[in-house]
Amino acid sequence: MAKYLGKRIFYIILTLFIVTTITFFLMKLMPGTPLTNQAKLTPTQIHQIYKQYGLDKPVWQQYLVYLGGVIHGNFGTSFQFSNQPVSYLISSRLGPSLIIGGQGMVLGVLAGLIVGAVGAIKANTWVDTSATIISILFISIPSFVLAVLLQYYLGLKLRLFPIADWGGFMYTVLPTLALAASPLAETARFMRTEMVDVLSSDYIELAKAKGLNKVGIIYHHALRNSLIPVVTIIGPLAVNIMTGSMVVENIFSIPGIGEQFVKSILTNDYPTIMGLTIVYSAMLCVVLLITDIVYGLIDPRIRINK
Amino acid sequence: MKINSLAKLGGVVLVTGLILAGCGSKSSQSKKQEINWSTPAAISTMDTSKMIDLYSAQVANGTNEGLLRMAKNNKANPGVAKSYSVSKDGLTWTFNLRHSKWNNGDPVTAKDFVFSWQRTVKPKTASQYAYIFANIKNAAKINAGKMSPSKLGVKAEGNYKFVVTLNKAQSYFKYMVTQPEFFPQNSKTVSKYGNDYATNSTKNSYNGPFILKGWNGTNDTWKLVKNTKYWNAKDVKVKTINFQAVKTPSTGLNSFNSNKLDYTTLSGTLAANNKKNKAYTVFPQASTSYLEFNQKKIKALRNVNIRKAMALAIDKKQMVNKVMQGGDITPKGFVPASMAKHNGKDFASQAYVKAGTDYDLKEAKALFAKGLKQEGKKSLSLSLLGSDDDDSKRSSEFIQSQLEKLPGLKITVQSIPFKSKLSRSESQQFDLVTSAWIADYPDPSNFLDLMTSNNSYNDGKWSNKQYDALIKKSESTDANNETARWNDMVAAEKILMQDQGIVPLYQQGQAALVRSSVKGVQAFTTSPQYDFSKAYVK
Q1: Are A44 and B257 in contact (CB < 8 Å)?
Q2: CA of A48, closest CA in chain B: separation in Å?
Q3: What is the SS3 assignment for B298?
Q4: Sequence-ordered list of residues with C-beta below 8 angstroms from that of A226, at least 6 positions apart, any chain
Q5: Any B CB within 8 A of A158 CB
Q6: Measured between CB atoms, does A89 come within 8 Å of chain B?
Q7: Tens of pLDDT along A258-271?
Q8: A131 and A298 in contact (C-beta within 8 Å)?
């Protein structure tokens, strides 16, 4: 296990290194500078500004300096927020994003498993049909539309939850619901398909023949076996949540990094774009690693230390 | 300043006031002196030497104060300076400062102004707005690194007399000193925090009506709390203004409707749907969108009949009401309405030329046919350059549909990213282009200077000797005579419109909902846009 983890962590670092390198050079190819009024700046001033951001050095040197900084958690200074280190920009806004992203993921996957399992057990009844309809709806409605609807009906009309802003659990409810919809639908569809297969397999028939009760069969045999393929989609779902949160954070005025990402792109704030790309990649790598470990825990046939 | 309709990052300055009209309806809210205000973007910095965006300037105008303070009806009221005098030649401005304090108890002195202005101008600070100091003696040389900052044409005579020497007379200098770039800075605070100065609400000193609280440098909510050490604190009625950065207009609308916000901006269809709302208000901005003709590249566009025909063929009313839908206003000319006033008269009304902004398709067709004949052409094919955001695309398509009503005129639309559009406009790689400009200070010269023959922002290269002469006169012989200078500028704008150097399309306006119980907020057409020092809740 330790060896496996070590190997995986090495690959994660390698991945992040490649991501950093590619992002760095892509950004260098893009037009745009920290200058806002270039036409009216004196050459001395332009030089000073470049110097301040380390842009006066040759690109290869900038790259080495940047890599060195990244290792120490220093992503440079934002173009957009004067004198504000990108690492602070990210760390001060990461919390809210992790909270709504995490809650959305957990809620979506758990609810999806239940909806999917119920659909499979009651296959081809009205229960199954309703579950399918819910899945299709949640998959087709983009999270930003759902967010606006939730905000209008649950926030403004019924006044159950705050409309926007940040400050305690109640403020996380609507964004969490908006984010949970798509993982819920995906998980439910996967779960139902898998479980229908599993329920018609020989070993379930055997268990039934042995006279085990229905709850026991579903819980011990069907559920666990159906989970294996479902775990594989958690990685892509995490990506979904990350991209969804950019819009959802905007709509609910949440001071998170998704919102910051969009804004840094609109304002050519390259240090922030690079910093956030690296942080997003790191989060994704960690989710994938956790998925693989969970995989081994659920399926004894997969021996992760091999 | 060139503006991007997407970001509107920008303005340094501004002006004209009008008081928010409250309709006097009874509010269900208590009369707690607390206002909940929204803003489209978070604060980017509170360092007035580095401030480049309107929304940060708005906050700074609440927390700090310069020599003078912008007030309604284009007035520059006493601020830290209780009075000022200008020498006969207009070059020396002497400000007599009152005895006022920073919120940490230090006195605000002339040295704080000297310190701040020198800091902004010296290249090491890398201020992107240092050019606004260009008319102060030696500023340009210091900024270019060729002279020591201590040579800047400002000096403190004792603690309470501040003297500024200009390169040439500039009657609107009084407006410039109301802007954040010209605010004083507490040298102790600046040196104490170094690079961290003004990166959050505690690492700063305030001398304005309010103190900034709860801003950690990156968050989306903060407060302005009454500053009891402000010299005029007795006139500041509101105790707290809660700011919230709202990035989605529909969220702002929902928050307004649930009484969480007292002010929210609207755009597009949201604005159109709320026009009948009692709280609906339009705040004119000192910003004009206009069409430029490339006279350098296309010979036919040098023909005044063709330019006039194209101007008359565009129905600006329909453009504002049906296409843009937000708070935009039909234009009166190149210089926006309600921006600059002289002897109580608005510049845009005085310089109004009906034909320059009118719509008359019949006349347009006649003029176009005449123009084509003069040019010996049967038809004309032009491309229209615009940026690729939704508003610009809609406006380009509308202009195309209007212009193609002229027989023989074919228009193709090109929509490209804003920055690319800007660089192509500046290098004359277009036939027609839609541009926008926002004033840096509330003086017509801010717009009129653009159209002089050699100005780098005169993208279409329209050139008129009489116009250039008038602008030059307003800057030299008449610079120190407000009325003569004003008349020069009015005459210049009339020439621009009669010769149709450009076609004004619309004046930008900010549509918003404002709670009727909130009174006394002063609105200006340029930065800082709003002033809360006289605001109260009724």
Answers
A1: no
A2: 6
A3: coil
A4: A117, A120, A191, A194, A195, A197, A198
A5: no
A6: yes
A7: 888 888 887 888 99
A8: no
**Which tokens in the block code for residue B49?**
């030497």
Does A45 sit within 8 Å of B126, measured CB to CB?
Answer: yes
Is B41-244 in CATH node 3.40.1080.10?
A: no
Total residue count of chain A as it appears in this document: 306
State how far the Cα of B490 lies from the Cα of B114, in Å rounded to an integer. 36
Tell me, yes or no, whether A75 lies in a domain.
no
In this structure, is residue A52 part of a structural domain? no
What angle separates helix A234-251 from helix A169-199, to the nearest 10 degrees?
150
Q: pTM above the 0.90 mark?
A: no
Residues 6+ apart with CB under 8 A from B1: A37, B10, B11, B12, B437, B438, B440
Q: Is A252 on the interface with B (CB under 8 A)?
A: yes
Residue of A nearest to B248 (CA): A251
Strand partners for A114: none
Q: Using an 8 Å Cβ cutoff, are B305 and B293 in contact?
A: no
Half-sphere exposure of A109 (CA within 13 A, CB side): 17
Residue B521 identity (one-letter amino acid): V
- For B483-524, the pLDDT digits (tens) are 999 999 999 999 999 999 999 999 999 999 999 999 999 999
| Residue A64 domain-assigned (yes or no) | no
Instruction: Tell if the CB–CB gap between B419 and A251 is shorter than 8 Å.
Output: no
CA dist., res. B473 & res. B492, Å (int) = 11
Kindly report, residue by residue over B341-356, the tens digit of the pLDDT.
Answer: 998 899 999 999 998 9
Residue A165 contacts B where some CB pair is shorter than 8 Å = yes
Contacts of B300 (CB under 8 A, 6+ apart): B306, B371, B372, B375, B377, B380
A148 contact B CB<8A:
yes
Architecture of the CATH domain B285-509: Roll (3.10)
Q: What is the ipTM of this complex?
A: 0.85
Contact between A255 and B244 using a beta-carbon 8 Å cutoff: no
pLDDT tier for residue B235 given thresholds of 50, 70 and 90: very high
Query: Is residue A84 situated within a structural domain?
Result: no
Domain definitions of chain B by residue range: 41-244, 285-509
- The range of the structural domain enclosing residue A111 comes to 94-302
Under an 8 A CB cutoff, do B44 and A80 touch? yes
Please check whether residue A161 touches B, CB under 8 A.
no
Secondary structure class of B499 (helix, strand, coil): coil
What would the pLDDT profile of B70-124 be if each residue is shown by its tens digit? 988 888 999 999 999 999 999 999 999 999 999 999 999 999 999 999 999 998 8
Other Cβ atoms closer than 10 A to A295:
16
Q: Tell me the pLDDT tens digit for each residue of B357-367.
A: 999 999 999 99
Give me the phi and psi of B530, to 5 degrees please.
-130, 145
DSSP code for A85: B
Q: Cα distance from A287 to chain B (closest Cα, Å)? A: 27
Residue B219 to residue A267, Cβ atoms within 8 A: no
The total number of residues written for chain B in this structure: 538
- Interchain CB contact of A248 with B (< 8 Å): no
Alpha carbon of residue B268 to chain centroid: 21
Nearest residue of B to residue A253, measured between CA atoms? B246
Q: Is A168 on the interface with B (CB under 8 A)?
A: no
